[in-house]
């Protein structure tokens, strides 16, 4: 983070308002480090002051209320300094300046210390700091023309280093265009390069003055791509009291951009041990990624994709409050328009259409770190099945279970059994041919079930909804005779995967959501210790 400290200004006469709570929630999300917040209690001259005692009591009460709110918001705010000030008293600002300088110095020291590699990291750090291995990202907030020079862009370097003469990608006219850096200034002083945390003005070559480009990201050529699909590790903001349901529309904040999006919440269907292994591998790759280069996310994205291919994801009706043992929830974000998102950046979902001032509610609903995104152009959106869409990767669906009974054993072949009750009389069996079924012992506790035998669905048997199942051949003929009996319970478990997407016509009129279903069987589907079943 390029932020050293945060100053939160609170009106002493109104104290904690709805927007104050939202600010505290944002600080907790974006700035989790402790002892980096200063609370400025402003307008203390407007407190009741008929007597010195009354004034002091009012001030003490205001400070106590703010401290209580900070403590209940987040543990990291417990020791936050609260500095009363008034525009009518200059002496109040001396302590404020001292406190801000102290916090800023400590933050700068901590960041400098964290950048020093230890012995175990020395062998993993590249010897050259090229734009290819360490791409830069410049957050642009304003642009203006300068006579004789062209269009000037002002912004802050988020990561990497930018030199005069370097090429950068900048989104102009709804597409990325590559331009060369003509000159750089820091507070009207020319410089040859800028690095992370520097605020500067950058002049680019061949940029039309008519371009109105503000609040955007510029980067090394090819470092960022536009996206309309994001996958987040979603966490609910506990101050938001309204339900957060799948397929609801939210305002999604990605960098400078705020877009409407449909949000689908899912949870991984897997063993807890496998889930822990997934997190371990993901954190390990994040750590290795941060050691090697802070900007190049291609390797981490590929690793994350390969990990997530091994899991199926079950639809979640509503995002719940997070608990320690809770299986994490992922959010699939389907944006209305393309945005540029930095990998591993924080994305926030909110309901800005709610009236926070009148109902005193927090409009911020959930947040998460971006894990995956699609890689399209501004004018296209890949459809599921193309192999490039992250909705194909996630395998989102619901776990279904059907129960049947062994009707009889085939007289000519003891490895074939007839099962009733798994399909309807007039139903189709085509999606289920080749799927695996199992015969289990009857037990109310699913974790105590044991599998007697497995079989493969072959075809329909007659016209009454019965099917023919071939018992897997790892059992001998004698074993089958002793194990397979009539009226044994037979289970069919499968994932009914869902794909949702919008198809845009040439005139950009949106069609209704299309649906496509696919029946699959993950390898772990018959483990009865599965999470979320």
TrEMBL record:
Any Pfam family: eEFSec_4th
Compositionally biased residues, Polar residues: 115-130
Superkingdom, taxonomy of origin: Eukaryota
SUPFAM superfamilies, sorted: P-loop containing nucleoside triphosphate hydrolases (SSF52540), Translation proteins (SSF50447)
Region annotation Disordered: where it falls in the sequence: 107-130
InterPro entries on file: eEFSec_C, eEFSec_III, EF-Tu_GTPase, P-loop_NTPase, Transl_B-barrel_sf
Protein name: Tr-type G domain-containing protein
Upper lineage: Eukaryota, Rhodophyta, Bangiophyceae, Porphyridiales, Porphyridiaceae
């Amino acid at each position: 983070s390029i932020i050293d400290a945060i100053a939160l200004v609170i009106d002493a006469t109104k104290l904690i308002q709805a927007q104050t709570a939202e600010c505290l929630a944002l600080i907790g999300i974006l700035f989790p480090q402790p002892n980096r917040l200063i609370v400025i209690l402003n307008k203390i001259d407007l407190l009741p002051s008929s007597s010195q005692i009354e004034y002091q009591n009012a001030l003490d009460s205001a400070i106590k209320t703010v401290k209580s709110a900070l403590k209940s918001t987040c543990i990291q705010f417990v020791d936050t300094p609260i500095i009363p000030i008034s525009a009518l008293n200059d002496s109040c600002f001396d302590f404020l300046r001292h406190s801000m300088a102290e916090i800023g110095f400590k933050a700068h020291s901590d960041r400098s210390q964290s950048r020093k590699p230890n012995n175990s990291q020395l062998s993993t750090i590249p010897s050259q700091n090229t734009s290819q291995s360490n791409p830069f990202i410049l957050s642009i907030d304003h642009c203006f023309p300068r006579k004789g020079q062209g269009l000037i862009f002002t912004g802050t370097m988020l990561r990497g280093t930018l030199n005069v003469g370097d090429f950068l990608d900048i989104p102009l006219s709804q597409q990325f265009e590559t331009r060369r850096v003509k000159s750089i200034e820091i507070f009207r002083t020319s410089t040859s390069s800028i690095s992370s945390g520097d605020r500067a003005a950058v002049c680019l070559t061949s940029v039309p003055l008519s371009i109105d480009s503000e609040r955007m990201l510029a980067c090394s050529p090819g470092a960022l791509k536009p996206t309309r699909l994001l996958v987040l590790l979603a966490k609910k903001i506990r101050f938001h009291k309204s339900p957060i349901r799948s397929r609801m529309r939210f305002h999604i904040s990605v960098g400078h951009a705020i877009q409407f999006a449909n949000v689908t919440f899912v949870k991984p269907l897997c063993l807890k041990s496998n889930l822990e292994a997934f997190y371990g591998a993901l954190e390990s790759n994040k750590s290795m990624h941060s050691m090697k280069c802070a900007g190049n996310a291609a390797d981490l994205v590929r690793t994350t994709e390969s990990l997530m291919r091994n899991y199926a994801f079950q639809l979640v009706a509503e995002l719940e409050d997070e608990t320690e043992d809770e299986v994490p929830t992922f959010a699939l974000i389907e944006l209305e328009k393309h945005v540029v998102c930095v990998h591993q950046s924080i994305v926030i979902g909110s309901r800005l259409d709610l009236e926070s001032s009148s109902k005193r509610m927090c409009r911020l609903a959930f947040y998460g770190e971006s894990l995956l995104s699609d890689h399209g152009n501004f004018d296209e959106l890949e459809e599921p099945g193309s192999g490039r869409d992250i909705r194909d990767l996630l395998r989102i669906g619901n776990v279904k279970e059907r129960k049947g009974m062994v009707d009889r054993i085939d007289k000519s072949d003891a490895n074939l059994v007839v099962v009733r009750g798994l399909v309807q009389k007039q139903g189709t069996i085509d999606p289920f041919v080749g799927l695996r079924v199992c015969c289990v012992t009857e037990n109310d506790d699913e974790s105590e079930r044991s599998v007697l035998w497995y079989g493969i669905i072959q075809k329909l048997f007659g016209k009454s909804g019965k099917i023919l199942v071939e018992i897997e051949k790892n059992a001998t003929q004698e074993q089958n005779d002793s194990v397979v009996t009539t009226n044994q319970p037979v289970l069919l478990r499968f994932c009914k995967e869902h794909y949702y997407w919008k198809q845009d016509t040439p005139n950009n009129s949106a069609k209704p959501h299309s649906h496509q279903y696919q029946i699959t069987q993950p390898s772990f589907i018959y483990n009865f210790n599965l999470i979320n079943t």
